[in-house]
Design goal:
The protein is of the alpha/beta class. The protein has 2 domains: 125 residues, Trna Endonuclease, Chain: A, domain 1; 56 residues, no CATH class. Helices cover 48% and strands 14% of the residues. Helix 3 links the parallel strand 3 and strand 4. Helix 5 runs antiparallel to helix 6 and helix 11 packs across helix 12. It starts with a helix and ends with a helix. About 2% of the residues have low confidence. Pfam families: DUF2887.
Length: 257
Amino acid sequence: MRTDTIFYQLFQLMPNLLSELLGKVGADYQFKSVEIKELSRRIDGVFLPKNNDTQQPIYFAEIQFQADERLYERLITETFLYLGQYRPEREWLCVALWLRQSIAVPIPRHYQALAEAGLLRLIYLEELDSNSLGTSVLSLVTVSEATVPERLQKVVTQLRTLTDERLQEQLIELVEKMLIYRFPDFSKEVLQAMFTDTDIKQTRFYREVFQEGRQEGRQEERQQLIARLQQRGFSVNEVAEMLALSREEVTQLWGNN
């Protein structure tokens, strides 16, 4: 899965994250893909204010993880196409999110005026602090494999503060996707830390599949979870202990994968 797609999923779950990165704490946004009808073109990274406060700008974002000479052209062209079609009565801002400064392409001379006017901002993900849950998740894409457990522990601690169980579960799954994309062969210890420390037994998925659904025979869902753990190198005994199942139950489900 492409990393930019993963981050667009993160923005879908946490649409106020971009305004936080820009220092606009408290702004309430929704993240959308917007179609430009005349050209049958879709803009993926548009952040629209939820309220009618015209002081809150529209954000147009592009995420890039390798050098791309056409990024600014693409971002700014799409922005002006949107402004021309929808004619919003708001200020606007283009935001280019680069993985790190070393791969960032300099802003072309013909777009320098936009940057000088504050209409084009650059953010380097490797330079973010991890004070909030959103920035902690974003920073996972820049860390080395050796530092993943430590950084993951901080994400886990912040995830525990969420009262929305569904959002917590979605973010856990998204973090797993990010780690698998970065480190296809990362050790089972990393995944084990994620599952045990985030109290998988408290998630809605676990309750439905292994507790509430125990008498309903939701075997397919159980097999899917066990298969994911099996693929990451867990033994039968480790899976049984993690999911509070007997070794025989795990063996039976394991053998049906």
